[in-house]
Design goal:
mainly alpha; Helix Hairpins; 9 helices
Amino acid sequence: MDPKFATEVETLSRLIDELDYYQILRVPKNASLGQVRKAYHEQSLKFHPDRFFGLPEGALKSGIKKIAKRVAEAYVTLRDASKRRAYDLQLQRLQSPSPAAPESAPGAPAPAAAPPATALRFTEQTEKAFKQEKQQQFGKTEKGRKLYQQGMREFQAKNFVAAERTFKMALAYEPDNELFAKLRDEAGRNIKTDYTIK
């Protein structure tokens, strides 16, 4: 085995928990699906465990398996448009500074805290939490979600009176839903500015 490759495997398997999926596949964040697919094929060929079946069990072989697993995980996430949007949102949240973080003294170096390893991965739990968050955003109750969908149809049809009324009804079921309140207000503003002759 090439000593250069062995060093690469050792380094990559040690740092893999600190890399996001784009870094693992070595593609830019705005990479097209074709670029992601090509990078996946290159990386999976390079690190596929079947190529190294003859290696004795040890750190090198387990490192190769770890890398191959993460390469496949990255591809599964980045090839799916909805998973990729959710993952990008997750990365964006990680990179934006936390408002609750204490400010350091001027001139003092900021602490370089690495994100937790699980934060750079898109697991089933992450996907489930994202879907749940999205569902709650569009309504926590079944009736609220139905009224939201109805209100959006009315809004898109430019029937702002009906849209405002529907969002008001949705707010009766979910008074703390900020999205419903925002849409109700927007529909109300459009009623006041809609001077078209019918």
